[in-house]
Amino acid sequence: MNLSSANMPDLIGALVGFTLTLFVFSYAWGDNPFFRIATHLFVGVAAGYATVISIYNIILPQLIFPLLSENRGEMIQAVIYLIPSALVLTKMSSQLSKLGNPSMAILVGIGAATAAGGAVIGTVSPQVSASINIFEDQNFINAGVILAGTLATLIYFHFGRKKTSDQRLPTEQVIQGIGWIGQAFIAITFGALFAGVYFAALTALIERFSFLWIFLRDFLGPAVLG
Amino acid sequence: MADIHCPMCGKSNPDHLEVCQFCDARLTPLISPKSSDDISHQKEENADLPEWLNLAWDANLDPEKSPSSEDEADAQEWLDRIRVNSEEDNEAQPDTYADSEGATPSAEGTEWLNRIRSLHQSDQETQVGDFEEKTNAIPQSGSSQTQDEGLDLDGNDLPGWLDRLNDGQILSEDRTTDENGESHNGGLPDWLDGGLGSEEDAPPAEGEDAPPAEGEVAFDFPSPLIDDEPDSGESKPDVDIPDWLSSLGMTSDSDEILVPEKPDSAPSSDTISRIGDDEIPDWLSNMGTDRDPDPFLTSDEPGAEAIPAEEDEEIPEWLSTLGIESSDEAISSPEISQAEDSDIPDWLSDIGIDSKGAEATASPSTEGDDIPARISEMGIAHDSAEEAEDTEGAAEPISQVPEGDMPDWLSSFGGGDSIPGEKLAPEIAGSGSEQLEDLGDWFSDLEGVESLAGEPTPAAEALETDEEMPGWLKNLGSVVTGTVDDDSIPAADDHAALPFVQDEAVDDDLLDVEGLPEWLTPDSAVAESVEGGSDSDLTPAELPGWLAAMRPIDGDEAGGALEDGTIESAGPLAGLRNILPAEPEIVQFKKPPVYSAKLWVSYNQQAQADIFQELLASEGKATTIPDIPLVSSQRVLRWLIAFILMAAMGLMVIGGSQNVPLPSSAAIPDSAYAASRIVSAIPDQAPVLLAFDYEPGTSGEMQAAAAALVDHLMLKGARLTLVSTLPTGPAVGEYFIQNIQTQHNYTSGDQYVNLGYIPGGAAGLASFVQIPKWVFKQSYDGMEPWNTQPLQDIETISDFSVVVIITDDPDVARTWVEQVQPKLGGTPLLMVISAQAEPLVRPYFSDNQNAQVQGIINGLTGGAAYEVTVGKTNLGRTYWDAFSIGLIIAIAMVLIGGGANVILHLLTQSKRKDQGVAR
Predict the structure, then answer these.
(1) Chain B, nearest residue to A146 by Cα
(2) DSSP per-residue letters across B256-314
């Protein structure tokens, strides 16, 4: 990005970005108003942007414009969409909230059914088949580790009740040992996730430092250095 | 048929019934009359009795058998002798009156006279009425008016003197004066008349001695003698035995048919009418006056008023209770005093003088010497001095009664005068004890009373030594004398102690004087009665201590008593000693005790109370938050880490260092290779769907990760269609195309189209997959997308050559995989994901063709690797040095921090061990 060739809105945007970036970095000295201003500003801008996107990308093109169009079919479709959508708005009133229940039921039902169906079709079945076919690649080590890690992790989440506090069955000891292995896999997974977070944060930091440097170099450099 | 009234319910029943047909009460007594054997046995026992008495007894057994005239003559004869002997004895013993001890002759006379009256009253009644009805009739009969009426109804046979005896008053109106101007007493003997004459203004003729007419003898026994006297049914005896005597015999023999005793009843007019005035001995007349203290005699009766008023104070209480009223004026009556001094026999003196005291005995006598004034006092009550003066005329004839008129045995009966022995039947003369042995059953009861007498009194001795007195009468006299002399039994109880009481409930032991308590002994009673008297011969009895304490005292006595105890000086109990001192206790007050207000609690309770108090006190105080120091170990460490990272990153970025080599081809992950192969495999200007589903916050990483891939697509001239399931996604995608890949000069609507936001989450995504045109009516920038170049020939999602999902959220990546990948068909799905989402998206990747995700580029590492595969540097390379330094610093900090924690832990363990060993 070259700020020297940027227009005024881009410069203002870059300046705001630079300032807010410094505000966020101020958190290194603890919680401070600059950090809070930055966070609140981000949340507010995001919400506002989402609202604008919803209005301009959803409500107007999906509900309003079809009603005003000359196409009767789109008009009827818009009316069909409009009625349950309007009933959802009644949920804001405690007295009329029951009117929005059918619309909410449709939304929740359809969303749950879609998620459940997608999870079964897109996650469970493929993952089960992939685990079954893990040894097809002749990479037995990886396959063995994956199998061991999967079983150990599942066994770790075995919640059985002891018959007595003093007596322990041998099976329980085996399950407990395998569970411990599964716990190790879980710990490695969380470590990988944390490392990924660190990588993401480190990349964001680098990007911010790069932005700052570019901003300083391209905006303040000519102004300061001439 | 005669009816029998039930004694219980009062209803009439046929006379043949024994049980009341209404209430089942028994109509006839359970005890049948004596059998013939009993009668014969009784006759044998009565063999020693006088003949006339046996006849009377026989008559009683057989009411239809009337005594013969001879028997009546014999009885009259000995009675005459009795009178003569009594008069002689009175002359021989003129003044034993004063020495006699107090007795209760009046009470006695009253009792047995009342019982005689009740006896004759029962004669008239053929049926036994209700007891209450009779008792209700008693007060009526007690009134003088009623009695007078009764006397009038009785006819002419009732002697006037007996009328007076019966109704308790001296019938002055009966004293009539005959044509010769002589005063007649209606047949009343002179000596008796004297006793009665103290009342009225009709003085009898002096020296007149009117013997009782033969065959008409009326005698009043003491009430106990006739207490249980049965109803004889005879109204007029025809034999020599007087009615009263025959009644006496019947009473003794027929105990079984006792008539319920009435406290008092109107005098039987039949009985009284049979008593002739001439036949009544003088002593009996005097005795008749003694019955004045009739309990039913009211004070306003003439008879009561005739009693000297002075005796009211002097007479003992037992006599006062009998209704005798007296006055001070009567005490000073000289006539009475003279009579007392001279003519009163000892036995009469015993009757009343003891209670009267020395003052009465010392009063001057104005009466004649023959008649004991005491008798007149006992029979007559005076309320005023005028009435007392009237007694002078009545006293005169009494004084003229010769002493011989009073039989000795009767004298002994009253005060110790003896009856001449030659005038008595020889077989009954002798000692009292011997006489008792000869008596029948009805007299044998006298033994109990004799024992009551205790030591023989002078009167009793005189009676015992009198040989002429009939035995049975001597015993009677001794009994009465003993009762009087001993004065042990109150007058009200005399009738209960007298012999003819056949009540088995009366125990002889109860009559034993010796067995009585000391305070109930005759001696104590006599002593109490004579206390305060001036008689020097009498030693004052000693009162019990408790009784003396209760006696109100005043003056010096009170002062003396103070020495022994506290004497109440005020209030209704003034003068009493040793009473509970109420006032001082009330007045005296003590200082109220002071109790400690301190609460006694245990140590634990006190500790808990303190804690609770502190807790309550702390509630009102604001807790002070300790100030956080600006410089602390954590803050310094945080600053240090931040400084190190910023410094390293800054230096790398500012320096633009690209010295750190990118990952080698061997180190490039398969996912990156797979993605590069797929992109490389797509045709040019192929439609590619790019989903920018990451937040602006992660745009730095996502841009570095996706820059190489998107650059590769643009190099291929792919027609890009931008979508996003996040509201901010369209803006992020637009920024990425316009700012990151500026070198490709992609314009909206030509090379790419930004459809914008796909609402509805998974459902919206599924809808987008099914019919993309229904979801997006217009593009992000407001144009119709489906007519643009990038979306030409695109009807479904599978029409895209490659679908690239750029996301930092594993869930979004999974949604795309779940909702879109199954609909893609043969279209490969590539994932550009954040480094933090790689572990969760990695399982969807596979190298084979059937994998859900056919290529993954994860973070900066993946982007740098993808650049390696493409052979074109991009943001990955720009950030790689800084990223590498940052990884090194991170690893160093992890190692340093981990090593420091291990060292600190070891130090802590060693310190604990040292402390444990030291302990």
Answers:
(1) B843
(2) GGPPPPPS--PPPHHHHHHS-TTTS-HHHHHHHHHT---TT--TTSHHHHEE-TTHHHH
Quote the pLDDT of residue B464: 47
* The predicted structure's pLDDT at residue A97: 86
B777 to chain A: which residues are within 8 Å by CB?
61-62, 65-66
- Let me know: does B878 contact A203? Beta carbons within 8 Å: no
Q: Which residues from chain A sit within 8 angstroms of residue B696, using beta carbons?
A: 42, 46
Probe site for chain B from A54, A108, A206 (most B CB atoms < 10 A): A206
Query: Do A41 and A20 contact (CB within 8 A), yes or no?
Result: yes
Distance of residue B684 Cα from the nearest chain A Cα, in angstroms: 27
Helices (H), B741-858: 761-770, 772-775, 810-815, 821-824, 838-841
Measured in degrees and rounded to the nearest 5, phi and psi for residue B752 equal -145, 160
Q: Is there a contact between A204 and B821 if contact means CB atoms under 8 Å apart? A: no
Q: Is B176 helix (H, G, I), strand (E, B) or coil?
A: strand
Name the phi and psi angles at B382, rounded to 5: -115, 140
Collect all residues of chain B within an 8 Å Cβ-Cβ radius of residue A62. 777
- pLDDT tens digits, A99-154: 889 889 988 898 888 888 888 888 888 888 877 777 776 778 888 888 888 889 98
CB contact under 8 A, A193 and B836: yes
Round to whole Å and give the CA distance between A23 and B34. 146
At B903 the pLDDT is 92
Determine contact, residues B816/B686, Cβ cutoff 8 Å.
no
Residues of A in contact with B635 (CB under 8 A): 30
- Cα–chain center distance at B208: 75
CB-nearest to B727 from A53, A196, A197 is A53
The residues, ordered by sequence, that sit 6+ positions from B286 with a Cβ below 8 Å of its Cβ are B191, B192, B194, B195, B348, B371, B372, B375, B376, B379
- pTM for the model stands at 0.49
pLDDT at B635: 78
**Token pair listed for B634:** 């954590």
Cross-chain CB nearest to A199 (options B642, B652, B859): B859
What secondary structure letter does DSSP report for B186?
Answer: T
Q: Round the average pLDDT of chain A to a whole number and report it.
A: 83
- Cβ contact B700–A197 (<8 Å): no
Contact B686, B752 (CB under 8 A): no
Spatial separation of the C-alpha atoms in residues A73 and B149, rounded to whole Å: 144
Ranges in chain B, pLDDT < 70: 1-2, 29-76, 78, 80-113, 115-538, 540, 551-565, 581-589, 629-631, 918-919
Percent of chain A with pLDDT over 70: 90
CA nearest B760 in A: which residue?
Answer: A111
Each residue's pLDDT tens digit, B463-508: 444 455 555 555 555 444 444 444 444 444 444 444 444 444 444 5
Nearest residue of chain B to residue A216 (CA atoms): B654
Interface test with A, best of B632, B643, B701 (most A CBs within 10 A): B701
For chain A, positions 85-144, list CB contacts with chain B under 8 A.
107, 110-111, 114-115, 118-119, 121-123, 126-127, 130, 137
Looking at residue B227, the DSSP 8-state letter turns out to be T
Of A49, A137, A208, nearest to B727 by CB-CB distance is A49
Name the 3-class secondary structure at B404: strand
> What ipTM describes this predicted complex?
0.87
Q: Can you give the three-state secondary structure of B65-128, one letter per residue?
A: CCCCHHHHHHHHHHHHHHHHHHHHHHHHCCCCCCCCCCCCHHHHHHHHHHHHHHHHHHHHCCCC
Instruction: Return the structure tokens found at A101.
Output: 């229940």
Selected residue of A56, A69, A209 to mutate for chain B interface (largest B Cβ count, 10 A): A209
8 Å CB contact of A121 and B696 = no
